[in-house]
Amino acid sequence: xxxxxxTVSYALLTSIFGATAFMSLRNFKGxxxxxxxxxxxxxxxxxxxxxxxxxxxxxxxxxxxPLLSIFDRGIRTLLDLYEQGGQIxxxxxxxxxxxxxxxxxxxxxxxxxxxxxxxxxxxTLVPRSGQSSSFVGIYAYNSIETMTLTLACHNNGLVxxxxxxKSSSSHVDHVIKTTGLQVLAVDRAHVDQVMxxxxxxxxxxxxxxxxxxDISGTSVEVxxxxxxxxxxxxxxxxxxxxxxxxxxxxxxxxxxxxxPGVILTHKNLLSxxxxxxxxxxxxxxxxxxxRLMYNLPLDNVFGFVLSxxxxxxGGSIAFDNEYSxxxxxxxxxxxVVAAKPTVFATGSGFFELVQEHIDQHYGNSFxxxxxxxxxxxxxxxxxxxxxxxxxxxxxxxxxxxxxGGQLRLIYLENDESDPPVAPFLRAVLGTQVxxxxxxxxxSGTMTASMFYDYKADPLSFGAPLPCNELKLMDLPEKELYxxxxxxxxxxxxxxxxNVFQGYWNDPTTSDEMVDADGWxxxxxxxxxxxxxxxxxxxxx
Length: 540
Description:
Elements: H1 7-27, H2 35-39, E1 42-44, E2 56-58, H3 78-83, H4 86-89, E3 94-98, E4 101-104, H5 105-122, E5 135-140, H6 144-154, E6 159-164, H7 169-179, E7 183-186, H8 191-197, E8 205-208, E9 221-224, H9 225-233, E10 247-251, E11 262-265, H10 266-279, E12 291-295, H11 301-313, E13 316-319, H12 329-339, E14 343-347, H13 348-362, H14 366-379, H15 389-403, E15 409-413, H16 422-429, E16 432-439, E17 444-448, E18 463-464, E19 468-473, E20 489-496, H17 507-513, E21 520-528, E22 534-539
Parallel strand pairs: 3-13, 5-6, 5-7, 7-8, 8-9, 12-13, 12-14, 14-15, 15-16
Antiparallel strand pairs: 1-2, 3-4, 10-11, 16-17, 17-18, 19-20, 20-21, 21-22
Helix pairs in contact: 5-6, 5-9, 10-11, 12-15, 14-15
């Protein structure tokens, strides 16, 4: 039996099949990024010296071009960054918040001006002196007050010396004596500890950042930050504009046992900030709608870099005391849920506890186990899936209950968790997870993993930032050589605009750690993988 159709019917069927094919092609989901871009993540120099690997750089700033130092000719210092940032772009938008109390970009900028005026009226601080007469120590948890004080200093040629809230008394004593601090700001939680440490030291003024506490029997003058602000409101002292080569901060968070102070200039810090602004893909860019929260101490320079980036882009930053393993995880997560961050930064230890918490509460669920396997399988296709039925049934609820439901990007600092936690976070929380290799000596980050690189080696930390370059050096005592097969191995050396200026009052150690050509010897062992990313192998 023959079957015939007329011209109209044929045309109709052709249209239906054509539309179906078009929709199928349109709805086909390929990898989030072309695989070729993941296969060549670094630019490699053609020449190399004996005992060294080739030099590896960001593809954005290949060998032969100057390394990134600024992203705008009009922004050469942290003051320039703040002046052209949120206080202009989003003056009335929330900027800094704590316990659901928020202040705007404009109000923080004004407070910072008052703080600087008050400091100059109340003390003998000398901006841009390059000596201890410019230093302001800060020993506290991250807060609105610490950020405001930091802005006041950086905007006017004063130098911050941050100390993490969980620092030991011996560390704080070392910092005070090494730098000759005359002005020290602390929060109420650390007043009693500090009072016993500053007797007989150079400290002349103690500033209480939050609630004032009655203190008697001390020769050191004690004032509140609000006293400083009130004094500054009537100050006529003019602002002092810093230069790119001026010291911005001294960080005592080096990995060296001698605990030296790492000198970072405005140029050092700005080059790292500029790199982060540059490497974020347009479709993932941070805007004024984003909110940052991080579980990092005050003396972690990476937290400062991220905060500065958010300040410039007009985003907001939610503060709370950093979490420690001795505290209840759920109580801290309640604070995170209330803040609703879109970007979260921390070390791997915190997320190892989060993974354990999720496994305990959801791990026996069929939908969780099946969904986790399914979502991990998408990584082999180069895709991060957030709209599957398993997201609807279980994973969205987990993100909402633990992180507020808005999280889209996680930074993992120096993550060497075993088993690796990054794939778990991508699958369960449905977020981009970037691993970053950091040190104080490099103003924060040296290498960062690439967006959408879901199949990266668990110990890989991505390619160099645009502001620095990297090479490996033979290390015979560890039997690591740049001629090793299949991949070069050795000690990681870094050179670039983010590399520190030396250790405070310690030229001998400075010369031991930075060679005549500006290469910083990290003391960390690494292996360069075929796609140009860095894999960590431990410490020297």
